[in-house]
Design a protein that fits this description.
It is built from 12 helices and 12 strands. By secondary structure, the protein is α/β, with parallel strands linked by helices. Helix 1 crosses helix 3 and helix 5 packs across helix 11.
């Protein structure tokens, strides 16, 4: 016997006209009450106002975004666009943006995009829905903000972003940190150099500032690199590169695991640092020294800028762009004392260190060749960050 599935019939959305009939008032009164525009020109009793609001809640009234746009109304909602490669730091940024938008009275609508064409289609879709503005993060398109009718703010690795983490500075500090541990050769490991230029340049700058000429083969790409094991073994065994700054905590975690399989100890044989500041850095066997992205600060500054653009009807990019310096968590993987966090999270596992670790330190006020970021003996006797030295306070 063949069975025919019944088609699910969605209930039609309730209209302001229907609410007006049930409440015994005119349609303009309902619209004014629901939009918060009832004033001296709209007379409605408190009893009627409460009844209208109760009917709207019980009947699950939702405004029609297309109709609102035609009327020139702006919804208090923001679209968030990010590429679909979402891991700890990116998921945390979405969380921070959503929380802070909610605190500002805005709904957030998130979309993960797969490619540049999909991103452009999503921007148009958000505009059609009547959002007040858009935040894009970690996407590939160089968006010309002036061509769109609503404000857009670019965050992080977006080409020509308004606000971004200072990735070059973060890797520069991490590299100099390894140099101050006594390493004269520091490698850099990333997925693809094309997307890691700022970090790679930061690594090379730190080496040159310390009087070290970086070699091209000290930079190792992971993507489509069939010679990766040979590259790494050559650097470690032949070139005696015994310190590596990694472009992310995930890369550092995989590298530490690879080193263990090949008989190398971290940090005794090879020192390693990460980047992102994810909770993953506590799960690498050897606690990871890492640069901590400040997602809460990025979200706050990004939303402040977007709301300013909305209020002032600005469609242009921020020039020059704003960069947010990372924080730092120093631990065992680079040769520093372990940070000794004995806490156990019983109810939830945090995504990022920045929300709950007391060992996160402020960045140095300046990074100069003569500044010793690692304070040798003093640091070995304590469990405080060398970055808290007196000349860096």
């Amino acid at each position: 016997m063949k069975y025919k599935l019944m088609e699910k019939i969605e209930p039609r959305p309730v209209t302001t006209k229907q609410i007006a009939e049930l409440a015994g008032v005119s349609r303009p009164v309902v619209s004014a009450v629901l939009n918060g525009n009832d004033g001296p020109n709209i007379r409605v009793s408190q009893e009627k106002r409460e009844k209208i609001m109760e009917l709207a809640r019980n009947l699950r009234y939702r405004p029609n975004p297309a109709a609102m746009q035609l009327k020139g109304c702006s919804r208090k909602s923001i679209g968030i666009i990010m590429d679909c490669y979402i891991f700890e730091s990116r998921a945390d940024l979405i969380k921070q943006l959503s929380i802070q938008l909610r605190l500002q009275g805005y709904q957030s609508h998130f979309a993960a995009v797969t490619d540049p064409v999909h991103e452009l289609e999503t921007i148009q879709d958000f505009i059609t829905r009547g959002v007040s503005g858009i935040i894009q993060a970690y996407t590939a398109n160089r968006i010309e903000h002036e061509k769109y009718p609503i404000p857009i703010v670019g965050l992080e690795d977006v080409e020509g972003a308004d606000i971004s983490s200072d990735f070059g500075y973060g890797i520069r500090v991490m590299t100099r940190h390894l140099i101050d541990h006594g390493h004269t050769k520091v490698g850099y490991i990333c997925m693809k150099k094309l997307f890691n230029n700022r970090k790679f340049q930061g690594c090379q700058e730190a080496l040159r500032e310390a009087g070290i000429t970086p070699e091209d083969d000290w930079m190792v790409e992971l993507t489509w690199n069939e010679s990766l094991p040979d590259n790494l073994l050559h650097l470690i065994e032949k070139e005696q590169v015994r310190a590596f700054a990694c472009g992310s905590d995930r890369i550092a975690a995989k590298f530490i695991s690879w080193l263990a399989r090949h008989g190398y100890r971290v940090p005794e044989d090879v020192a390693v640092t990460g980047y992102d500041g994810s909770e993953l850095s506590n799960l690498t066997g050897v606690p990871l020294t890492t640069a901590v992205i400040r997602n809460n600060e990025l979200a706050r500054k990004g939303i402040d800028l977007l709301l300013h653009k909305i209020e002032e009807h600005q469609l242009t990019k921020l020039v020059p762009p704003l960069q947010v310096k990372p924080m730092f968590r120093l631990s065992r993987s680079c040769g520093c004392p372990i940070h000794r966090d004995n806490g156990i999270y019983w109810e939830w596992v945090p995504l990022m260190l920045g929300d709950m670790e007391r060992h996160i330190k402020e960045p140095p006020t300046d990074l100069k060749p003569e500044i010793d970021l690692l304070a040798g003996e003093a640091v070995l006797k304590t469990i405080i960050s060398p970055l808290q030295k007196e000349d860096l306070s």
